[in-house]
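hey so u asked for the seq, here:
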Amino acid sequence: MTQPNEQLRIIAQPKALYRERYGSEHFKTGNRVQRYIRAEDNQLNFEYPTIEEASRRQRVCAQAVKNIRHWILSLQR
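ran it, C-alpha cells below
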C-alpha cells in the first residue's frame, strides 16, 4: 500500500464517458460480456488508466472487474 508521503503521478486518465451496452454485448445466457475501463488518448499510448509511484519509478495499471458479488481490483505492473 502507498505510504501517505509517497507521490503518485497520473500518466493516463480514465475516459470520462462510456456508452451503454449494446444488446450484442450480452452472452446468450443473458450475462454481460466483460468490458474494461480504457484510458483517454495520451502521448505514451497507454490503453488502460495508469499511475506511477515517484519513489519507485513503477507504473501500475488498476482495473476493477465486477464479479458476481464483489468488485475485484487487479494491479498490473
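The beta strands are 8-12, 50-53, 58-66, 71-76. The two ends are 14 Å apart (CA to CA).
lmk if thats what u needed
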